[in-house]
Design a protein that fits this description.
Blueprint (H helix, E strand, L loop, with lengths): L5 E5 L3 H13 L3 E5 L2 H10 L4 E5 L7 H11 L4 E6 L4 H9 L4 E4 L4 H30 L2 E2 L2 E2 L3 H14 L5 E4 L6 H10 L8 E5 L5 H9 E2 L11 E2 L1 H4 L4 E5 L6 H13 L1 E2 L8 E2 L3 E6 L3 H6 L5 H7 L2 E4 L10 H15 L6 E2 L3 H7 L5 H15 L4 E2 L20 H15 L4 H8 L3 H10 L7
Helix pairs in contact: 2-3, 6-7, 13-15, 16-17, 17-18
Length: 448
């Protein structure tokens, strides 16, 4: 853990700000100053600070109100309260509200040094906790597949069992559910893990091009074939071939692939000499293949050959408890890739994302997170950053009553304001007492 902290001194007295600024700079810490609670919150919204030294008595927002806001919105940020009035009552109140320590003005350098020692010790404990928390979170990720919901746990349990065999696997599920990630995980846990994994999207290629890609071709086999080329069936030798959207291939191609699977030999286009191949086949489809068999566009014998083991990958709407984990993962990913420091979502965001049905599944959620991070102007994402998502519509659901609409709106405002009653009441245009009564009467509860 780096023992140099990023500190902000919040005090309306210039002399206090400057003296602490020089002291912290001399000891090697990064330090900035703010002359008011409002300015401090603006700075926190743009950049992270590990530690705040906050004067308890300031015009406008006082130190205790700033402490409350910081603990609500940036709970990992430590706060030390400083005061010139020696009020034990205010210090005790600050500690109960989450302050890490307090100092009485005027304080001596050795008192400040002692406070910093305590803070650094507390930071070390936090670092150790975060490390252990990270270890636990890794247990909820399986080869980059993120989830801890019962449907995903069922998939995770199957992967190691399936991986040890060479049987063909058929992965079914909607677009964007992560079928290729599951295929890669099976390959990674298999005895073939050190050999190639090749993925082909059958739906993106014409029949002729797919044949050339899979089987390869001899020089001069067709116009433009200037060189002999290995196909993927030969190039993947010893490894795993993943055929995505296998439901899109033609009956003729199904016959050719069935022959390869049964004979373990492949013949290049334009050649008569078969070549031995050895690979494990994993297929995926979003189609109902049994229905396509009935329609006469998918061969039953080929279906039985690729459907030895089947795994259904659940859509995101069936595993919404995984959304917080996925949001955290994509937030970290795109914050790093875009070099924009966006490290949190406000409390109203997760309920909003859980309300949405995600027809594009995890891929759509990832795209939504990337867009929100790229366009964000602060370090935290709010519900307004996801206004482009259209609310899910269920034609079968009955219309909401006026009271239900009022309660839903009240709950959304409370979540948007992190359940700060004062701010929520202001947005709703009612007083705090009225809002408290409404919460109690309608039994409104904080999500999560």
């Amino acid at each position: 853990m780096d023992k140099k902290l990023k500190i902000m001194v919040v005090d309306d007295e210039l002399i206090v700000r400057e003296s602490l600024l020089h002291w912290f700079k001399k000891t090697g810490h990064g330090v900035e100053t703010a002359g008011s609670g409002e300015e401090a919150l603006e700075r926190l919204e743009q950049n992270p600070f590990q530690l705040l030294f906050v004067d308890i008595k300031m015009p406008g927002m006082d130190g205790l109100e700033l402490l409350e806001r910081v603990k609500e919105e940036y709970p990992e940020t430590l706060v030390v309260i400083i005061t010139a009035f020696g009020s034990i009552e205010s210090a005790v109140k600050a500690m109960r509200m989450g302050a890490s320590d307090y100092l009485l003005k005027p304080f001596k350098p050795d008192q400040l040094s002692l406070a910093m020692e305590r803070i650094l010790y507390q930071q070390q404990l936090t670092f150790d906790y975060q490390y252990l928390k990270g270890r636990v979170e890794k247990m909820t990720r399986f080869d980059n597949i993120i989830g801890q919901s019962p449907p995903m746990e069922a998939v995770f349990e199957l992967i190691p069992e399936i991986a040890v065999s060479d049987s063909s696997v058929l992965l079914t599920g909607e677009t964007g559910t992560g079928k290729e990630l599951v295929a890669k995980a099976i390959h990674a846990k298999s005895p073939r893990a050190h050999l190639p994994f090749i993925a082909i999207n059958c739906g993106a290629l014409s029949d002729a091009l797919l044949e050339s890609e899979l089987f390869g071709h001899q020089k001069g086999a067709f116009t433009g074939a200037a060189h002999t080329r290995k196909g993927f069936l030969e190039a993947v030798s010893g490894g795993t071939l993943f055929l995505d959207e296998i439901g899109e291939i033609s009956p003729r191609m199904q016959v050719d692939l069935l022959r390869v699977l049964e004979e373990k030999k492949v013949t290049k286009v334009g050649s008569r000499e078969p070549v031995d191949v050895d690979f494990r086949l994993i297929s995926a489809t979003r189609r109902d293949l049994e229905k396509r068999i009935e329609e006469g566009v998918f061969r039953e014998d080929f279906f039985y050959r690729i459907n030895i083991i089947r795994i259904r990958i659940p859509p995101l709407r069936e595993r919404k408890e995984d959304i917080p984990l996925l949001v955290e993962h994509f937030l970290e990913k795109y914050s790093h890739e875009t070099t924009k420091y966006v490290d949190r979502v406000k409390s109203g965001v997760i309920p909003l994302l859980k309300e949405y049905d995600w027809p594009g599944n995890v891929r759509e959620l990832e795209n939504a997170m990337e867009r929100a991070v790229v366009l964000s102007r602060s370090r935290s994402l709010g519900t307004e950053d996801f206004s482009f998502l259209r609310p899910s519509r269920n034609p079968a659901s009955k219309p909401m009553s006026l009271k239900e609409i009022q309660n839903a709106h009240t709950l959304r405002v409370l979540e948007d304001q992190d359940w700060n009653i004062t701010r929520a009441a202001k947005v709703l245009g009612v007083n705090r007492v009225t809002l408290h009564k409404m919460i109690k009467r309608e039994n409104l509860k904080k999500s999560g």
